Amino acid sequence: MSAHRPVIGLTGGVAAGKSSVARAFEALHPGCTVDADVAARAVVAPGSEGLAAVVAHFGPGVLAADGTLDRAALRQRVFADADARRALEALLHPRIRTWMAGRAAQATTPYVLMDIPLLAEGGGRAAWPMLDRVLVVDAPVAVQRQRLRARDGVDATLAERMIAAQATRAARLALADDVLVNLGPAEALVAAVGRLDAAFLASAPRPAG
Asked: Are 33 and 25 spatial neighbours (Cβ–Cβ below 8 Å)?
C-alpha cells in the first residue's frame, strides 16, 4: 500500500459534468480538491515568476494597464498560432504542476483530487507522475453536445467545434482507472461519487497511532 496520501486525477470532456463531480467530492471532504484552473491563474499572478516569463517571451503587450495578465490579448496571440500556444504551455504547464503538487502536499484530507480539465491534452499520465489514479467523468458526445447547447446557448456548429478542440473520448478513457458515466440526474451523480469515495477511502493509508 502507498505510504503517502493518494492523489487522484479528475478529468472529463467539456459538459461531461466534471465540475459537478468535483463539487460532490469537495462536499464530502472539504479541501480535497486542487484545481488546475486556479493554479493557472496563481502562476501568472502579479509579481510572479510565471508572469515575468510570459512577458519576457510575448512582450509587454500581454499586460493590462494595472500590470495583470491581459488574458484576452494573450488568447488572441496564441489562438491562431500553434507555435505560440506550445511556447505558452511550455512556460506555464510545469509551473502549474509544481503549484498543484505543493497544494496536494499540504492537504489533510484522506486523499487529494487534482481537477485537471486538459489531462489528456497536456501530456497524459507521463506529465503528471504524482497521480496514483485517474478518474474520468464520461458522457457520450451526443449528450455533451446537447448539454453545451442548453448550458451555454451555443449553436450546433460551435458545440461541435468545442468538442473537437479537446482530446477524443477514447483518448480520455484510455487514461482512466475509474470511469463515472454521467447520464442521469444529479442524485445519481452524487451517489456514484459516494461509491467512488468509499473505494478511495478503502485504498488510502490508515493514520498512524
From this structure: yes
Q: Which residue has the cell 453545451?
A: 148
Residue 87, all three cell numbers: 511556447
Helix (H) or strand (E) holding 163: helix 156-164
CA-closest candidate to residue 103, choices 22, 172, 38: 38
**pLDDT tens digits for range 27-52:** 999 999 999 999 999 999 999 999 99
Half-sphere exposure of 43 (CA within 13 A, CB side): 24
Residue 110 exposure: Cα atoms within 13 Å on the Cβ side: 15
Instruction: State the pTM of this model.
Output: 0.88
Beta partners for 180?
A: 137
Q: Are the C-beta atoms of 121 and 11 separated by less than 8 Å?
A: no
User: Looking at residue 124, what DSSP letter applies?
Assistant: H
How much of the chain is in helix, strand and coil states, percent to nearest 5? 55, 10, 35
Cβ atoms of 153 and 139 within 8 Å: the answer is no
CB half-sphere exposure, 6, CA atoms < 13 A: 20
